[in-house]
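Researcher: Next entry: NUDIX domain-containing protein (Fontimonas thermophila).
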Amino acid sequence: MSVEFRFCPRCARPLTEREHGGFARRACPDERCGFVHWDNPVPVVAAVVEHEGYIVLARNKLWTQRFFGLITGFLERNENPDAAVLREVEEELGLKARDPRFIGHYGFERMNQLIIAYHVIGEGTITLGDELAEYIRVAPAQARYWPAATGLALRDWLIAQGHTPQPIELPARAR
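Model: Predicted structure:
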């Protein structure tokens, strides 16, 4: 989630809303300072993990509702998204992932993130990392998608595989 800047990090003046580049942005009122908080989205990789013919969905420990989603993680500085998605699958599921195939990119406005989604094949035994509470495996033909960000990536992958996925209702917090 993006940080809400209230004061200029250069000169400490209170920031004001001004138009820059066609968008309202928080900016320093002192023209000599010139600071503009661009609030660019944070890149996140997401994986539709296929394991032994099933899709693996996981629940983060921080999620208060019992909702299962794709494996996700932040793209690190100087990291290739293909490598990042393989790393995240290994960190979060303990699986060796291979063959990353780009699905698409999706905006997740609530968290100010840009989701870069892939399909990967996971091999090995699932061992949950520190961030996950539990996982489920779903046959692709039975998978349903949530109509936001990573859910749209799952939907697009399922459609590309010849399935006709149906949407599920999102928990209020996940929208």
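Model: Note for the record: The mean pLDDT is 93.
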